[in-house]
Structures
1.
Amino acid sequence: MKTDAFALRHIGPRENDLQHMLKTIGVDSIEQLVYETLPNDIRLKAPLALDPAMTEYEFANHIQALGNENKMFKTYIGLGYNQAIVPAVIQRNVFENPGWYTAYTPYQAEIAQGRLEAILNFQTMVIELTGMEIANASLLDEGTAAAEAMALLFDVRTRDQKKNNTNKFFVSEEILPQTLSVLQTRSTPIGVELVVGNHENFDFSADYFGAMLQYPGKFGQVYDYADFIAKAASNEIKVAVAADILSLTKLMPPGEMGAAVVLGTTQRFGIPLGYGGPHAAYFATKEEYKRSMPGRIIGVTVDTNGNRALRMALQTREQHIKRDKATSNICTAQVLLSVMAGMYAVYHGPKGLQYIADKVHASAATLANALEKLGFQQSNTAFFDTIVVKADAQKIRAIAEQNEVNFYYIDANTVSISLNETTSIADLNAIVGVFASANNTQTTTIEALTETNHFPENLSRTSSFLQHDVFNKYHSETALMRYIKMLERKDLALNHSMISLGSCTMKLNAAAEMLPLSNPQWNNIHPFVPLDQAQGYQEMLTKLEQQLNVITGFAGTTLQPNSGAQGEYAGLMVIRAYHQSRGDHHRNIALIPSSAHGTNPASAAMAGMKVIVTKTLENGNIDVDDLREKAILHKDNLSCLMVTYPSTHGVFESAIKEITQLIHENGGQVYMDGANMNAQVGLTNPATIGADVCHLNLHKTFAIPHGGGGPGVGPICVAPQLVPFLPTNPVIATGGENAITAISAAPWGSALVCLISYGYISMLGADGLKEATEYAILNANYIKEKLSGHYDTLYSGEMGRAAHEMILECRPFKQKGIEVTDIAKRLMDYGFHAPTVSFPVAGTLMIEPTESENLEELDRFCDAMISIRKEIEVSTLEDKNNVLKNAPHTLAMLTNDVWDFPYTREQAAFPLEYIAENKFWPTVRRADDAYGDRNLVCSCAPIEAYMES
């Protein structure tokens, strides 16, 4: 046994299991299985040209040496990113804990109550700090949250504004530069005209539907926006405010000024800088806009027994239902990071947050006073944490960098300095020393912080916040550790059992890949430091881009999109730019098969494209004749085809090369959705099938953890003709020579977690990556055959094989009174998270086991599914009091003196022998979604206050 081979640890089945699995499937070798699964004309002819695989030990040494190339300067650049202290109790118990980072999006509420409570805390924190009525469960970053705010305000225009096509959106020149760039990207395709200017000179004309302000401004000036918002409201202009969340403990919340949307980032609430991400953005608005609100909302409801339960509310808003009518394609949040930010507020409480804000503000005030004593002019008349100093920027920069200090240089005579929670008196004296040296004057020594407020009294916060118990009782480490553990025990994550979600690829997130994320050399770098201070990052990111180019067969990659949905959008915007560069501005038709992910049509609509849906055949494949007809019909205006490969039905369609050629012949480009790349790596690739661009879910195929619904990374890889259009960033230039504006806020998106995929690829190497794909196909087909005779597989390839996932037919069980949801809930009693429910076909289960699962776990899952099938068989349409309809069964049910069910307690909780060894108890019975939507509560208020009369 080659114990230092990472593939041995990543791939689940052991060598001595292989023959048994192959025999079950009915093949002699993995090679035969792959031959029967993939069309031969798309197989790669040579191994991937990647470096030899590293061992875990070699990778640990390599990544440490690479990290040492990053320079750890004291950084005061600001612009929406500030160094924060990650409380050790949160780092150890959440950030580094697989019980939190390996969980899936909480679609199955009954086994996600802990995570749902943590996110509810986050929403409560946001609502109370912003002074708004409703908040979501986080967005991707401040730039994209601002773009979502613009889209929401466009969507909720008055009837007259829609009738008159009122389309101007005012953006204050105080907005962060990266936010403006994202707004520019998102505005044009949907028909919004951005007007950037000074908010003090705005004319409030009827041509505008909305406006956006920054609070405090990008270089720290605090403005009183109350009059602006009031005047805007009287002219039916709704205002969004991008606000620094820590400042809201001291400044009047925008909600109290009348803002329609408040948004920003929670990064400074205990989340590492990570060279730009991942960070949890926040988004709060008025309850009347709840159905136009992007992202997820966690709501309070009741379970079958009337007890409090949490779940995702108002799911009809989601893009997989609304498709091209959706106002957003957001299908992911930054759950792990929002949990951390919420826990930061729980740990510190209102008084602790005020103490931190007071210290940050006092540091800025003290520094301003000290620099003024040296003869420097500080030009912000009101500020929270950022001061602007008139000085020779070139001279200051040379001395500052010599002393390992970074400021932001606005122009030749202006320096911006943003202070943060980590800033000490010694740091302040070092800053003063830089300016004294530049001025050739005697330095002045700061002994203590100044206590005064440097903003108007009428802007001081007077309202209380975070008065709920949860923010006031876990302030010792022991108390918080136990609270986090209590919540963790309510969640089923990958550290307990297999999560076999089709289309979601819940594979192992190896510890060797995760460890570097805690290293300060990686997680403490500001995204806008000079490139020579981030050489380790630059080498790693460049190498990862090259690895992804090799894997996809493409010529260029951008890592900027920080979710799969963002990657889809980025790919379409690059296609759009390509057509426009050739004068083909009219090419706006996107052909999308009816089986596609819901994010596909939503993304196309956001990119300004018109969606034409093409048919699928009875066997689940694309109807090539219908596609040909529509491609020819729309050939003059065809922009692209969006295709998932292998298909969402878990099949490698043999006509794929014919399909891509057909699109090219009619002037279009081919976008391949990379959701199922787990079945391609090392065997085929997007370039081989004829695609022009694909996005990759690094949080699926390339082992970044789901984190309960985020972080995600969705880079796009493109063919040579699209490379010039890859996106840039206004602060640190990236992308191609004709780059589109920014897709997300940071130059390289969520750079920190790219370390995981870099490690995954580097430790597997070409052979390991191919083997991982083969075992993903092996495990899926093993389950397919084990369940054969108990469940029908809806779609198979031409030789009867599944790709890496399959769809089980469950609709006939309705004759027994059993719905697919009943199977999903019953699986919880067996200790498993349900496969994907009713996607892409209603009333079915889509199963994807991944290569990481061993034979024992696959057998346990199959045994559970077969046992449930037997339970279905004895059910009847008339009998609603059965083991499936009552699932899941909680510990409270089992230990109750009364047992009113026609089956035993053992049948309910321990239907198979293995369960007793490792029993997982759901903590609530079935959550009542309809009740929760009728009585929407998305903060920590007690449920009794909202009960129906």
2.
Amino acid sequence: MSEPTPILELRGITKTFGDKVANEDISLSFLPGRVHAIVGENGAGKTTLVNMISGNLQPDLGTIFFEGAEATVENPNRADELGIGMVHQHFKLVPSLTVAANIFLGKELTTGMGRLDQKGMQSKVRELAERFGLAIDPDDRVEDLSVGERQRVEILKALSHDTRLLILDEPTAVLTPAEAGELFIVVRQLAERGCAIVFISHKLGEVLAIADDISVIRDGRVVGTQPAAGLTQTDIATMMVGRDVLLRIKHTPADPRDEVLSVEDLSAVDARGIIALKGVSLSIRRGEVVGIAGVEGNGQSELTSAIAGMIDVPRGTIRISGTDVTRATVAKRREIGLAYVPEDRHEEGAGPGLSIAENIAATKLRAPLVRFGWLSLAKMRELSQKLIAMFDVRGATPTTKIGELSGGNMQKVIIAREFTSDPELLVISQPTRGVDVGAMEFVHNSIVAARDRGAGVLLVSADLGEVMSLSDRLLVMFRGEFIAEFTQDNMSETAVGLAMAGTRPTPEALAEAVAEHARVADELGLDTSAVSLVDASAESATVTESVRVAAPEFDTSAISIRDSREPRGQFFASFASRAFESAKQPVIAVLVALVIGVFVILAIGKNPFEAYVALFTSGWRESFGISNIVATFIPLAVISAATIVSFRAGFFNIGAEGQLYFGAFFGAIAGVASNGLPPFTVMLIVMVVGSLAGAAWGLLPGWLFAYWRVNIIVTTLLLSEVAKLVTRYLVTGPFKDPTAGYEASEKLPEGVQFTMFSPEYGIGPDLILALLAAVGIALLLGRTRWGLKVKQLGEMSRFAQYTGVSVKAMSIQVMMLSGAVAGFTGALLVLGPNGDRFIQAFSPGYGFLAITVALLARLNPWASLVAALFYATMMAGSTGLQEIDVPFPVVNVLQGIIIIAITATFVWNRKKKRVAVPASVVTERGAA
């Protein structure tokens, strides 16, 4: 008998993302009537592969054949036409719509008059439900359905268009064991009708229960395809990792002592404002692991977030080590002894844009890493290097950005940071989500080691086998309440599964569940003595001593941190490499602008080479030109540093111009009012008052954002214009100098102006002060505890709050400092050689030019000095251009093109950073 024609065949499929090869030369066949499982470690390439099958991505190389004919699946609509359906792990349903409306969303049936055919869609849904054995009422609203029923809606939606190939991506992630069994019966029925099923799951017991064929993908390549019959979980795991592993640890007895966590009558709401916790009470003692099982979305996330201080609670009490922390900050809870591994590592547990060393130090900002507020970069590197080795974070160095790691390796860094903080209470949510099979044993042993060291552990996991094997006591949460509690003596998959579905495990209910499980197994043709849907016992895998991962010791005193420095040659090579990488985009942006400028200059009939020589060299040929360069460099160097402070925190402060104006005006007025005091004292008053005025004008948008979440771009831009209007009113009214002949204040007292060291070249104290201010900002941002907190805030996620940073206080501090530095710049201009009073037209737009300088420097305060000098050279060179009859506006054109180019690269980088998080989450969860 000949082999049936594959419904879908992949030949030589390859897909790359930049330098990363996600899929390489993959060839697979999916036959009608068979369930084909695809398994692999996190990041192995499974999700990329099914996204190409479903039309969400396109292969770079290779061919797709559908029912024997070559096909191009250019988009999901084309996949629908071919008969390819996909059920995503995270439901894509509209809760407020009915079942029928969701199933036909985007392809609604209509009557001859163009009206929606409601009855026709309902009838079609009933027909589909009956045909595939998926009982559902088409009139029910999705928001009223259980998770299992929503899964049926997703499947019916995928089957509503003559589906020949159905992709199930982690279909049981949100199902109870009983619901998973029902789903498997449906899957088997679909296969019997001739449908090909592609099944993706990290639960190897489920894979063996449902699959006919199993393909293992490792590092983007298929390492083997075998019939499921005769394989064990250990066989599959060994193929996935390339070595023998232990899938489940053997539970060892606990030695619980005094209470470390007490939760009483706790209530909380979720992000939608719906009650998620209903009067929950919980107690954990030192030396025990208390697990929480339940279908995701039943309040577990809100419970761990409330304990960690990430959300406010309207009612209840939380005590850690006897201290009431119900209203305490995250920092206070960490100080008492809390360590927290959150469910969402990308948006909460880590700062993807920060290095591994910075991520590890984020919750350890004390001696020896910090002394007197200053960071020890050498000791940060030393600690992170030790933890990278201890926790086997692969392909990483202390300077590697944590966002560049795979999901599993990122999880290892978070676990390393939290487990080595010597916690009294360790709260862990989804500890092995996205962690490869080879690392699971290490994580599990780490949890047991923390318990045995004396920490109280609260463990939340969607992996029922994991939470059952690790927990000394197990609580089951259903709709925001604990409905059952188990110990190792009475814990069983059947009983826990019943409780997860909301049924208390009475003897009668247990007997009924056992009978139902036997029925499901019989329909699936399973030998229940050989495999269960969720294997909670220790898998009898052979683990050789050379590869077995031992439980780590977390005695933090053993992690000695000495002052280690890289060899000088290696340090400079690393520095040069980072500098080149950082400068690459700005240099390209400038070159692009100059190339475009060539065509502009040619269009007006001039020689581009002569124009550029004049633009970049004429200012340096004479003392007058150098003086102009210095005069422009001073404000750009300082105010760009002010801009970098706010931009580093993720705040787009567009109001530096207004803060500059207020600093110049109020500094000048304070100087005039101080007439009679020694000149040096008056100069200090001008600079201090100017800084305070700028700080006050920066405080306002910072406060509005911190307490009212008012957009900082809008407020700073608005306040910048207000500042210029206010100063114009004041210098044409109450503070007008009638002798000036233009909009200006009175002159400063005699002698209150910087004395130039070299008047010919414009070099004086203002240049020294400008350089000191810029260097001070660079050191503050790069070498202090406060600067690291600014970077954490700049991740634009919940990471700063998670590490204990007061987001409100830091928001206000950042905007005040940014405004103060801008105001200080205004004071320098008043005291400079071209100042001696406030002049309304004193700024050619320094505040806005500084934004471009900051972006050109990639928000690096050291590089901003070079960028400021480049801009100052261009502006001074405009005179040389005019001498060869090239109009001055050409300089404005070049500046405008540079602004557009560098801003575009900055926005592109920010967009990639924000998009990469959900993309990586999808890859991780879909491919785990």
